[in-house]
Amino acid sequence: ISLLLNPYDEIPEFLKSTTETNCCCNTTVLVLYELCWQVVQGNLKLDLVVSVLRDMMELRDDMQSVLADVFCILDLETSSLEEKNKRDHYTQLVGACLCFVPEAILKERLDPETLESLGLIKQAHQFNQKIVKIKTKLFYKQQKFNLLREENEGYAKLITELGQDLSGNITSNLVLESIKSLIGCFNLDPNRVLDIILEVYESRSDQDEFFLSLIKSYMCEPITLCHILGFKFKFYQEPNEETPKSLYHIAAALLHHNLIELEDLYVHLMPLDATIIEEHKREISEAKQIARKLVMVVLPSEKSEDKEKEKEKEEEKNEKPPDNQKLGLLEALLRIGDWHHAQIIMNQMPSFYASSHKAIALALCQLVHLTVEPLYRRAGVPKGARSCKMQLLMNKRAPQPAESFEDLRRDTFSMLCYLGPHLSHDPILFAKIVRLGKAFMKEVKKKNNNNNWKNETYSGHPLLVKVKAQTVDRAKYIMKRLTKENVKQSGRQIGKLSHSNPTILFDYMLSQIQWYDNLIVPVVDSLKFLTSLNYDVLAYCIIEALANPEKEKMKHDDTTISSWLQSLASLCGAVFRKYPIELAGLLQYVTNQLKAGKSFDLLIMKEVVQKMAGIEITDEMTSEQLEAMTGGEQLKAEGGYFGQIRNTKKSSQRLKDALLDHELALPLCLLMAQQRNGVVFLEGGEKHLKLVGHLYDQCHDTLVQFGGFLASNLSTEDYIKRVPSIDVLCNQFHTPHDAAFFLSRPMYAHQILSKYDEMKKADKGSRQQQKAQKYVSACEQVMASVHEAVVSLHPARVWDDIRPQFYSTFWSLTMYDLAVPQAAYDREVNKLKAQIKAIEENPEIPLNKKKKEKERCTALQEKLQEEEKKQAEHVQRVLHRLKLEKDNWLLAKSTKNETITKFLQLCLFPRCIFSSIDAVYCARFVELVHQQKTPNFCTLLCYDRVFSAIIYTVASCTENESHRYGRFLCCMLETVTRWHSDRVIYEKECVNYPGFLTIFRATGIEGGNKVDQLDYENFRHVVHKWHYMLTKASVHCLETGDYTHIRNILIVLTKILPCYPKVLNLGQALECRVHKICLEEKDKRPDLYALAMGYSGRLKSQKVHMVPENEFHHKDQPARSTTPASQQNGPGSTSKPATGTSKSEEGASDDGDRGKDKSQGTANPVNKANSATAKVTTSNGNGALNSAKGVKERDDKEKSVKEKKEKKEKTPGSTPETKAENRREKQREERAGKEERVAREGKEKTPKADREKAKPEEKNSKDDKTKAGNGDPTELTRERDAVKEHKNKEKVDRNAATGSLKSPNPRLESAESERDHKRRKLDCHSSPSHSSTVKVSMA
């Protein structure tokens, strides 16, 4: 009792001391009894006593038995007590001690009722019955012996004979003779003798050779031997019996030596095949149920119920069922190397059922070890590795070891297939197989497909079903807690989990990323702990997720690409850039998709190139970025992209190597170029036009991005070797011309520079002028073959107007060749200087780091300056070359109008929508051709056709093309605005230039006469007319109601906002229409509403820069002059600005609608050249300039018509009869005048008399309005007549336009609404210079 007063930690010390001093065992028992009794009484805490008892178990070896005796005594004492709580205390104490007291000891000592309350047995009643049966069997059951005829002495001698030492000269034949003598002498039963032979063999299983030969000599019939073995197996089929391994061994040996048949023995083995199949199905269903529970939300009450059920199942499992004799025999067969019979048994069972048992799996692994050993020694052992050699089987009937990879097909592959995922039981064998696979791939140069691993394996094995569920559960746990802050810890967990089940983990991670794109960054950062194999598996899982046929790649509205595809594409770019993952699979997947006519997955290619190479493609560049993109590579990297491109050297090299190694560089380019033009037909179908346009843009942008990557990363030799000539690209591969030149352009630049460097090295002491001449000769040598090749790209009539040299020059040059972006270079250099200054002034930066940063900035600064100098020299050489070539660019075989038409169609329009830099290039090239004073090039006509033909061009553009086209128009307008802003600039850059000649038939004239040039004031009229045409085209597109028209024109208007509108009334008209769009589209089409609201806000901010019309150009119209010179050379006359303007350009002086229809019918950037253009246009480009005589006759005729009209208009006739008579007379006069003009002018497209007649009419209408107000009926009559006349003119113009460059869109022609007819009132006025007309018609 005094001992119990000691602290608990002193009790073990006390017992230890008593043990060391050999004190009586009763002391220990007494202490244990007192401790336990105090717990029963409730005086001591249970957990403290349990901890003390646990510590005491180490004091003596028999302490568990002693404690069990104490429990037995207390069991008897507490069972007789009336206090129930003491009995409960006792039960709790024993239950708490189960962790260190074996259950077997307690079952021996405690009563069955106590064992039942503790849960050690199921029912006390059944336990008692079982004890009775066992005791009866042990003590009362009598063994039977046949003692009537057989003598025990004979069996004793038989056992002695078989059990003797066999190491001497004793053979089976000698022993067999002795056995025969014993049988005869003692009258022994031969079957019982055979049974005893088998028993002795079983006990001496190492003597296989002796006993097998003995049995073979002794045996009478195989079926008898099978029956005896069957009886032996049947003896061990009781519930708690275990078949000895020796019996399995002798059965396997007999089968292996064909002494018995497997079919005869198999029927004696348990369990039945049906039972095995049911067990397998039950295991799979239980595994699936466990997996289902892991992903289900379980309530607490349901959890407790599930725990109880699981406990019951575990108790049932504790009752050991009879062992599986078929599996035991299978293991024995594998141990001795009998693969033939083992394979037969495994085929009788469900797949992988046998190998799911560890003993079978290990035996099969051992057999595989022995089979692959020779081949592994030859080809699989890594250098420097040490491993012990395995002892091969001496059995000649075992599978033959593999000496070559071909021998693996014989048995090894089938063994591995039966083994399946249970190869994991032997990591050494797993490593051997992996090394052999690596050696096989090196030797055979072939790669395997492992689709079964991911999609089939985990569904066919109960164990793997559970593992899959556990892996998913763990992956959920990690992904829920993954953030940017704990990337390192989560990454380690992901690395550990992916080592065993990567496909399951990556599948779940990818599914989460497809839903939540904000996980991309932390997931990518957490993948740094993966192995190389895991990275390959990740790439495979990504490709499989991309190719999932069950997922739609479009959103439900069918207008945009699904967000899951965009998320996976972003992940691809980030993962492949950061980690060394094999790219070939992903690149081949994109190539195969393009071959199948699907371009959705180009989004992946776009992201991969952008992230790995740092090449961005966007049309939202600022002007500064665009300027930087016209410089060298260093300037592009520093100032041309939105983000600083750093550390892409290694990743871009990996991407380049993957493309070159697998020969995918050129095929991808060609497939993208072909897919771009076919996307409307191959993928259009029933898809929304918005989506089709997006796919087209994606295909085009990826082509530009990918081509830029190849040009900047491939060496000159690699690029030239892979890109074929331009005629092969276009004629054989059917590559569009713009894409073909885009791919070939870097090749030409490389070849020219190489040739130029060769010439410089040959003559080192040459001067600057000689260097320029060498550059020109290098260009001629390289481009000569190109000039010949491009001839086959177009019909022969094309080359009647423009020469192949001009065509090739236009398509082969870039902005890098035309101008040096000095401002961009200076800007970036100043940034670096400021950065150096900031580094010096920052005291927190360490000195060594400060030094490195300064050196880096200084090196970049020097590179930029060197690059600028190099580009400046290059531009000088190019300009010198162009100056020498310009005289041979354009021929004089046909009119300048046709020359401009072909230039626009074949050169300008296709390239201006190719990329943002090409848009700027096109505008600057037109300006350069003008500045070079190129013969036969009419600058005025070129600009007029560009600004007057935007409706169909805008309608045919995609969204991104609209951005580029708007940028092109903005650059063109910048030039025009600069000339318009100052007379000095205009006279310096335009006067005396052949591009501003108004006699279009003139050839070879540098500047022309003074009277042939367009003067400054008339040029201002022309610019106003262009602004007016842009306004009318914009209003038309905005009022069509078509999504594409409205979206594209709003994009174009936003791009040209710095230069247009400049006239106040035109800006107000646009503002009114855009405001209407905002109201109409607010709830219908949000994207159009956003565009319109954005443009509207920016347009309002530009109002302060707009000017009234009379400030934009001289609006007054003085009296008409009759000077012959002014009649012959309209631009030189100031008497009629609009008329004079019309003589300066091809069809540019038509009224508003006339200019629209003609320009739309004659210029289009998409369609190919149409020979009918020459038939529609006049022979010299403008019939109004044929001769002074024709002009005078026409003027006289118009004057007489005007006088008649003035008389009629002044006559006060407001009655309906008078108005009808006036209208009929007017129509007759128009028809007569029209017939006369047609007869006189032949094929002239635009009658001038109508324009001359419209002037005095409008003037008179203004006078009448001043006198009589707006309600004059003659004004209304005249307006209706003009509308009618306008409709007739539209019909003629439409018919004529069918032979032009692009036929009008049928939908635009047919869908004419009443609102369109009302809007056309604007067109009936002859001059766009009247602001009041514009306001009325556009309000």
TrEMBL record:
Main subcellular localisation: nucleus
Coiled coil region boundaries: 822-885
Composition skew (Polar residues), residue ranges: 1119-1142, 1160-1185
One of the GO biological process terms: mRNA processing
Domain THO complex subunit 2 N-terminal: 27-384
Single GO MF descriptor: mRNA binding
Annotated THO complex subunitTHOC2 N-terminal domain residues: 494-569
Localization in the cell: Nucleus
Compositionally skewed regions (Basic and acidic residues) per UniProt: 303-323, 1143-1159, 1190-1211, 1218-1267, 1275-1294
Quaternary structure and interacting proteins, as annotated: Component of the THO subcomplex, which is composed of THOC1, THOC2, THOC3, THOC5, THOC6 and THOC7. The THO subcomplex interacts with DDX39B to form the THO-DDX39B complex which multimerizes into a 28-subunit tetrameric assembly. Component of the transcription/export (TREX) complex at least composed of ALYREF/THOC4, DDX39B, SARNP/CIP29, CHTOP and the THO subcomplex; in the complex interacts with THOC1, THOC3, THOC5, THOC7 and DDX39B. TREX seems to have a dynamic structure involving ATP-dependent remodeling. Interacts with POLDIP3 and ZC3H11A.
The protein's name: THO complex subunit 2
Gene: THOC2
